[in-house]
Amino acid sequence: YLDDWLLEFSAFEDLVKSMKRYDGRLELVSSYEIEGKRVFSLYRIIPPDFTTPWTIPLSHTVQQTGTTRDDGRSERVRIAYVGKHTEGYLQHGQILRGTPGRYRIRYSLSVPRGSQTAPPSAQPVLRLEAGDGCSREVLAGELTVGAYGFADLICDFQQAPRAPLRVYWLGTVSVKLAEFSIERLGPAESPK
Question: What sign results for the dihedral spanned by CA atoms 133, 102, 49, 68?
């Protein structure tokens, strides 16, 4: 879909139904029928308010590197191993649409068991990105071997965000990504 609109062809109704759960409400704007059968519909996407954490499963994103598999804890997980995968986007394809404000994007991350010895705590592992104006590196010292922990990206959007959410793996430490959530914390802080 483009920006705040979704054009649905009748052959893809199931995809649209699943998107309603994760991308906000869809408001029917127009529909075209031939002989009583719907051919396509145009919807306006009304973003969720994100006042409570909104969990996004990895099945609604794409990847450039790593392996996706079931883990039992989450719907799917992405794992990138040093020496097996090349650096690149472990997660991308989801766009944050919302109202202006301060947002927390929380990622559930760990270092896979038995993947390596403990890296130096200051070693950069990932870069969390929300559009061009908000990013931060996750250091090895923030991750736990074999147990999930959280890495937060806090972003202030003075305008309504249309920010692609991405996780770039630097290829330095093996890592596992389980899921991520979005929450609006309140009004945006004024730029300094």
Answer: positive
CB 90 within 8 A of CB 63: yes
Is residue 7 within 8 Å of 31, Cβ to Cβ? no
Per the CB < 8 A criterion, the answer to whether 92 and 174 are in contact is no
pTM of the model: 0.79
Residue 133 · residue 168 · CB < 8 Å: no
Tokens of 82: 């040093």
Rg (CA), the chain: 19
Show the tokens assigned to 149.
């922990």
Mapped onto helix, strand or coil, the DSSP state of residue 13 is helix
**Can you tell me the distance from the alpha carbon of 157 to that of 114, in angstroms, rounded to the nearest whole number?**
40
**Residues 87, 57: Cα–Cα separation, whole Å:** 22
Reduced DSSP (H G I as helix, E B as strand, rest coil) percent helix, strand, coil of the chain, to 5: 10, 55, 35
56: nearest Cα among 92, 22, 101: 22
What's the mean per-residue pLDDT of the chain?
84
